[in-house]
Structures are given as structure tokens and as C-alpha cells.
């Protein structure tokens, strides 16, 4: 089958017309892409320097930078596609459907992601803080966008999802410069309470690590089954708290021994009542 010259001329004219339409679009799209890429690169560099000067939180900086990079390149891609003739409404619909599908598939991860944003933004704790969270006590080693890494005092790493962490109680023991420790001491019934209180106060008032204001406090709190219960409350700098607590317990034991004050253990007194007839029989 031969193609006529007229048909060839028609195809040639259509090709020329199409080239007049497509080639300028392609050239304009290329120009838009390279200029846009240059602008995006400069904007991202400026954002990076701004974040480094504004905040020293590397995890948050990394997330904000990555998010901005994705958004800017998506805008650039949509612009190039629109210049080439792709309908803008269809592109938006495609991105929306893809986002919905990803969101449904990653519900748990998105919860952790949102929790990470809250933690990095509001900063209930920082790297190096001692916290109690999700039943664990330890030092914050790393805060990532999805998980927080906590090192316990016996050197175990606990990885906690940020979603559950952001929606639970967190006790941060590093935010305050001073803290209070409390020691409960039992002494035997018959002990001179005034003497015991004087000994306890003397121990902590002579410890240079204990703060004078608020002053050490000692009081009788309970009449226990086997002891008179005293409580000692002292304040110290957060870094000195546990040394003060443990050294104080050793000093209490030592000073009570010197003063002859007994720290009792639980005990029961049993009174035996005999039947009178049985008693007379046993004596006969």
C-alpha cells in the first residue's frame, strides 16, 4: 500500500504544528525546572543555616529540612508537569489518593510521627535528662522522629514509640536544680523520740550537701505494728540527692547503734491461755 504525496504533506504539516506546540513547552519546562531547582537549592540552604542558628535540636532540624525539601520538589514537579500539559486537578487528585493510601497503611507510624513532632516541638525532655516514662527509668539517649531511646541505669536500651510516649505521664527529674529526698525510719517502742529526732537532725544538718533552706525536717508519722515510724525530709542539689540519701541511711544506722536505739524488725507477741482443768491435771 503506497502513501500518497498528499497524505505525506498532511502528516508533515501536522507534525510541524505539533512541534510548534510541544517544543516551546519542553524548552519552557526545562528552563522552569533548572531555574526552579536553583531556587529550591538556595531556599533549602538558607533554611538549613537558619535552623542551625535558631535551634540546636538535630532531630527536629532534620525533620523540618526533609519536609521542606519534599514539599518544594513536589511543587516544582507539579509546575513542570503543568507546563507540559498535564491537568493540575488530576495531579492534585493523584497526590491526594496516594497520601490517603499511605496514611491508612501507616496509621501506627503516623501516630509515632505526630508524637515525635510534639516531643521535639514542646520539649518535655531533652537528650541527657533523667525521666520516668512507660514504666522505665533512665537517661534520654536519643530523640528521633518516630522513637525515643532511653538508657536504664543498668545499661539497657529501651526504645519507646513516640505516639504512646507523647500521650502518657512523663516524670522529668532533671528540670529542677534542687530536689527532696525522704527517708522513713522505724524505732522500737519505748525509744526517746526527742533523742531520736535530735540524732537525725544532727546527721543532716552537718552534711554540707544538704540545703539549709528548706531546712531538714523530722517528724513522727505513725504508730506501727512493731515500731514508731519517723520520716526525714531533706533538700539537696539534684546531683547530690542520691549520695545524700544513701550516705544518710548509713549514718542513721551507725548513730542509732552508738545511742543504743533499736531499729526493730516485725514481731508478734503470742499469749498462751491454758484451760484450768488441763493445767491442774498437768500439775498433778
Q: In brief, what are we looking at here?
A:
With 284 residues, the chain is an alpha+beta fold.
Describe the structure.
The chain has 284 residues and is α+β, with helices and mostly antiparallel strands. It has 3 domains: 5-105, Helix Hairpins (Orthogonal Bundle); 124-172, Roll (SH3 type barrels), CATH 2.30.30; 178-259, Alpha-Beta Plaits (2-Layer Sandwich), CATH 3.30.70. It contains 8 helices and 8 strands, in the order H-H-H-H-E-E-E-E-H-E-E-H-E-E-H-H. The chain has helices at 5-54, 58-83, 88-105, 107-122, 162-166, 193-205, 241-259, 276-283, and strands at 130-133, 136-143, 147-152, 157-161, 170-172, 178-187, 217-223, 228-237. The relative contact order is 0.07. The mean pLDDT is 82.
Question: What topology emerges from the helices and strands here?
Answer:
Elements: H1 5-54, H2 58-83, H3 88-105, H4 107-122, E1 130-133, E2 136-143, E3 147-152, E4 157-161, H5 162-166, E5 170-172, E6 178-187, H6 193-205, E7 217-223, E8 228-237, H7 241-259, H8 276-283
Antiparallel strand pairs: 1-2, 1-5, 2-3, 3-4, 6-8, 7-8
Helix pairs in contact: 1-2, 6-7
Keywords:
single chain; 284 residues; alpha+beta; Helix Hairpins; Alpha-Beta Plaits; 3 domains; five-stranded antiparallel sheet
Oligomeric state as shown: single chain
Shape designation? elongated
CATH class category name of the largest domain: Mainly Alpha
> What are the segments in which pLDDT stays under 50 over at least 5 consecutive residues?
none
CATH topology of the largest domain: Helix Hairpins
Distance between the termini: 143 Å
Q: Could you tell me the mean pLDDT?
A: 82
In terms of DSSP E residues, the strand content is: 15-25%
Helix content: 40-55%
Order of helices and strands: HHHHEEEEHEEHEEHH
CATH architecture of the largest domain: Orthogonal Bundle
SS elements, strand count: 8
SS element count, helices: 8
Output the structural class: alpha+beta
Neighbour order of strands in the largest sheet:
4-3-2-1-5
The overall number of domains is 3
Sheet with the most strands, sense and barrel status:
5 strands, antiparallel
Cα radius of gyration in angstroms = 38 Å
Amino acid at each position: 500500500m503506497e502513501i500518497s504525496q498528499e497524505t505525506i504533506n498532511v502528516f508533515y504539516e501536522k507534525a510541524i504544528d505539533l512541534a510548534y506546540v510541544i517544543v516551546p513547552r519542553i524548552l519552557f519546562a526545562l528552563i522552569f525546572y533548572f531555574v526552579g531547582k536553583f531556587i529550591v537549592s538556595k531556599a533549602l540552604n538558607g533554611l538549613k543555616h537558619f535552623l542551625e542558628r535558631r535551634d540546636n535540636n538535630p532531630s527536629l532540624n532534620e525533620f523540618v529540612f526533609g519536609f521542606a525539601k519534599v514539599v518544594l520538589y513536589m511543587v516544582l514537579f507539579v509546575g513542570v508537569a503543568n507546563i507540559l500539559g498535564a491537568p493540575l486537578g488530576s495531579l492534585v487528585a493523584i497526590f491526594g489518593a496516594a497520601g490517603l493510601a499511605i496514611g491508612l497503611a501507616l496509621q501506627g507510624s503516623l501516630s509515632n510521627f505526630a508524637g515525635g513532632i510534639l516531643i521535639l516541638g514542646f520539649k518535655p525532655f531533652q537528650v541527657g535528662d533523667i525521666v520516668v516514662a512507660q514504666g522505665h527509668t533512665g537517661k534520654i539517649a536519643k530523640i528521633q522522629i518516630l522513637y525515643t531511646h532511653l538508657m536504664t541505669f543498668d545499661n539497657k536500651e529501651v526504645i519507646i514509640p513516640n505516639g504512646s510516649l507523647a500521650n502518657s505521664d512523663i516524670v522529668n527529674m532533671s528540670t529542677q536544680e534542687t530536689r527532696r529526698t525522704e527517708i522513713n525510719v522505724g524505732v522500737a517502742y519505748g525509744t526517746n523520740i526527742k533523742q531520736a529526732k535530735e540524732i537525725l537532725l544532727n546527721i543532716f544538718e552537718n552534711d554540707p550537701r544538704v540545703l539549709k533552706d528548706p531546712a531538714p525536717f523530722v517528724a513522727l508519722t505513725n504508730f506501727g505494728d512493731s515500731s514508731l515510724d519517723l520520716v526525714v525530709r531533706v533538700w539537696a542539689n539534684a546531683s547530690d540527692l542520691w549520695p545524700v540519701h544513701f550516705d544518710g541511711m548509713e549514718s542513721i544506722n551507725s548513730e542509732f547503734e552508738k545511742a543504743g536505739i533499736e531499729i526493730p524488725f516485725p514481731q508478734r507477741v503470742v499469749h498462751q491461755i491454758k484451760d484450768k482443768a488441763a493445767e491442774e491435771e498437768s500439775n498433778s
